[in-house]
Structures are given as C-alpha cells and as structure tokens.
Design brief:
The protein has 242 residues and is α/β, with parallel strands linked by helices. The protein has two domains: 127 residues, Response regulator (Rossmann fold, 3-Layer(aba) Sandwich), CATH 3.40.50; 105 residues, OB fold (Dihydrolipoamide Acetyltransferase, E2P) (Beta Barrel), CATH 2.40.50. 33% of the residues lie in helices and 32% in strands. It has nine helices and 15 strands. Strands 2-1-3-4-5 form a five-stranded parallel beta sheet, sandwiched between helices. Strands 10-9-8-12-11 form a five-stranded antiparallel beta sheet. Strands 13-14-15 form a three-stranded antiparallel beta sheet. Helix 4 packs antiparallel against helix 6. The longest helix is centred in the middle third of the chain and has 13 residues. The protein is elongated, with a radius of gyration of 21 Å. The model has no long low-confidence stretch (mean pLDDT 89).
C-alpha cells in the first residue's frame, strides 16, 4: 500500500512513519510539507492512503482535497478544531487528534483496512466548509496554478453545469461546487441568490431595473447586468431593506 504523509510539522511526519514500520505492506512514497506539494505527490503516486494534516500554511487540508478530482482514502491528523472534528464525526471518517498514541493510530489504520467503501470526502468537505476560516476565501485551480480568492473580491457566481463560475476583477474561475453550497456558505458575506443561475455580491449593486414580466435586471458597479427572478428580487428587497 502506497502512503503519502502531508503535514507541515517534521516531527508529526516522523511519528506517522515510525508507527507505520509495524505494517510490512505499507510504503511511504512521499512526505509533503504543504498542500501544494501534497497535490503533486498524489497525482504522481496515486496512493492507497494519505495521512493529512488540516492546519497547514498556504492552503489547509480540506482545501487541498477540494482541488483533487478523485481524492484517495484519508486519515486526517489535526490539533483540536471543533469544525474539523464535527465534519469527521458526522461523516464517519476517522481522524487522529494530536498528539496520538500508537494504539489510537493502529485503530484508525485497521478501520481504513476493513472499510468496504471509502468514506464520502464530499460530505466531509461540505460540513468542514462551515468553518469561519474557510468561509472567508475560495481556493480554485487556475490551470496548473492554485489561486486563493478572498470572498470580498468576488463580484458574482454563475452556474456552469456541475461547477460554479466565480467572477472577479481578475477574471472568472471554475469551482466544482453547487450553487446551493455557495448560497449557504456565502450568505454571511452579503451574497444573495437572485436567480437559480446567479449569486450576487450585494455590496456591488448600483441599480435594480424592472425587466420583462415579474423579473428584474441587477446592475453592478462593474457594469455587469444580471437577471433576478421574482423570488430572487423578493430576497434582494428583504436584504437591502427596500
């Protein structure tokens, strides 16, 4: 079994490696210091299991997983984080709370080995996304690069099949998330879903004009014009107090 350890603490990586020595069929093919290195290593080695730290510089463990098309099975390692632990416990995914013993480590590995199916990473990520840290930014792939977009820089989002197109002053970026997900996670940041295909940053609205039938056009300071459905217009009126 090929294993990758992703943790910015050398001591934490060495402990996992030491504990793995009792598993004859386990081979650590890569050690990574952050999520960027982790993504490259996963693509290169296609491991059967990764040990993944949550709190890391640049991008955290959850954000790294979001950027991988088919993430491998994961055992999370973390210092105390109420949102992370809630995500794991709600979705029956195992995690190791630092510092952890060899006995607790073995229990997590045995659980992984005896699972008939990989736990739903998407469900874990959906829950973890409620963390305040992750609600302040969106991490996307931009070609071979990774871009971190502060929520305040988002103009609007547009539905694009299984993706959401995130529009900013620098251009647009695709993220494999549903509009419902963003409607929920961005609600605290003055974002309103004005149409089944659009979520807008209300801070940028300069005018709302009547359009055909019961719909309206929302004009932004950037010059963009977005349709608002009857329901979306009512939401906007409520949020804007008009």
């Amino acid at each position: 079994m090929k294993i990758i350890i992703i943790d910015d603490e050398p001591l934490a990586r060495s402990i996992v490696k030491e504990y793995l020595q009792s598993y004859n069929d386990a081979e650590v093919v890569a050690e990574c210091n952050d999520g960027f290195e982790g993504m490259k290593a996963i693509q290169q080695y296609q491991p059967g299991l990764i040990f993944l730290d949550i709190q890391m510089p640049k991008i955290n463990g959850f954000e790294m997983l979001e950027l991988i098309e088919n993430p491998p099975p994961v055992i999370f390692t973390t210092a105390f984080d109420e949102f992370a632990i809630k995500a794991f416990e709600l979705n029956a995914t195992d995690y190791l709370l630092k510092p952890f013993s060899k006995e607790r480590f073995d229990k997590a590995v045995q659980k992984h080995l005896h699972q008939s199916a990989t736990p739903q990473s998407n469900a874990v990520l959906e829950t973890a996304a409620q963390s305040p840290t992750q609600q302040n930014r969106v991490v996307v792939k931009d070609g071979s690069k990774i871009k971190i977009i502060p929520v305040s820089q988002i103009h609007y989002l547009e539905a694009a099949d299984d993706y959401a197109k995130i529009v900013t002053a620098e251009g647009s970026f695709l993220k494999k998330r549903t509009m419902s997900f963003f409607e929920q996670s961005l609600g605290i940041h003055h974002f309103v879903r004005i149409h089944r295909s659009y979520i807008v940053n209300t801070q940028l609205i300069t005018r709302i004009d009547p359009y055909e039938k019961d719909s309206h056009l929302v004009l932004l300071t950037t010059g963009a014009k977005l349709p608002a459905s009857k329901t979306g217009y009512l939401k906007l009126k409520s949020v804007l107090g008009i």
